[in-house]
């Protein structure tokens, strides 16, 4: 089956074939690619008088366009920095004992002492716990976390020499 001009395909081999170009955002001259320009215009870039751009699908997942996501408009982020308000609520279980402490070494032992600088749980309501201010707090370094779905590198190419598609 002969490809349509402007058609995008995935290639599992690492070379660009004749009549195809990598979808890497490269700028092309309109004068040398008039038919392809008539299909793409400047929706992917270029000045529209002498140049236009091919789609740039490096590190992007293609998505069908609609009114909310216009064709050719990149969107999304590889990473995101979560704010404190965006973090889900969570709890931590602490193993404690009401027995008197019998070792000065914490390794393998349970917390027991009660007081204003130590962990305490009200026996009537276990949800009322007290932790020393120095033992709890916000954590993290405000660095972006990865937001990318699992992926495998495959080459997207656009047909630069094919059948001109007819309009329905």
Automatic annotation (TrEMBL):
Residues 6-62 form the Phage tail collar domain. It comes from the Bacteria. InterPro entries: Phage_tail_collar_dom, Phage_tail_collar_dom_sf. It holds the Pfam family Collar. This is Phage tail protein. It comes from Pedobacter polaris.
């Amino acid at each position: 089956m002969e490809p349509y001009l402007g058609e995008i395909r995935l290639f599992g081999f690492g070379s660009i074939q004749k009549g195809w170009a990598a979808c890497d955002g490269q700028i092309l001259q309109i004068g040398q690619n008039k038919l392809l320009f008539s299909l793409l215009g400047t929706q992917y870039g270029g000045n529209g008088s002498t140049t236009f751009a091919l789609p740039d699908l490096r590190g992007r997942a293609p998505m069908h366009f609609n009114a909310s996501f216009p064709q050719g408009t990149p969107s999304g982020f590889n990473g995101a920095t979560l704010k404190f308000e965006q973090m889900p609520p969570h709890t931590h279980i602490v193993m404690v004992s009401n027995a008197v402490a019998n070792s000065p070494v914490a390794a393998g032992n349970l917390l027991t002492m009660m007081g204003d600088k130590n962990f305490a749980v009200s026996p009537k309501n276990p949800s009322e716990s007290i932790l020393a201010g120095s033992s709890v707090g916000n954590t993290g370094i405000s660095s972006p976390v990865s937001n990318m779905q699992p992926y495998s590198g495959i080459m997207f190419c656009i047909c630069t020499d094919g059948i001109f598609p007819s309009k329905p």
